[in-house]
Specification:
about 90 residues; alpha+beta
């Protein structure tokens, strides 16, 4: 398992549109992709799980990947979050 902490920079946090972008990319990953925020762990392949976490702008999250191609998947997901998820 590999992980990296990243801060959400989207002004509105991970609402529907960026959560959809994140879930779509996570769905393409071969590894299991999760986000840890506080004491909560969320599966990234589900838009509803991401939205239910109510992650706001400025929140530090930990992206974790476990499985085949985990390092590549982590780099891809972290870069996507740091880029603002298309916003």
């Amino acid at each position: 398992m590999v992980s990296k902490k990243v801060t959400v920079t989207n002004e509105s946090g991970l609402h529907a549109r960026p959560a959809g972008v994140l879930a779509k990319e996570a769905g393409k990953c071969h590894s299991n992709v999760t986000i840890k925020t506080g004491d909560r762990t969320v599966q990234c392949k589900s838009i509803l799980n991401i939205m239910a976490a109510a992650i706001k702008c400025g929140t530090e999250i930990e992206v974790c990947c476990d499985g085949e191609n985990e390092a590549e998947d982590l780099a891809k997901i972290v870069a996507l979050i740091e880029s603002g998820l298309g916003e």
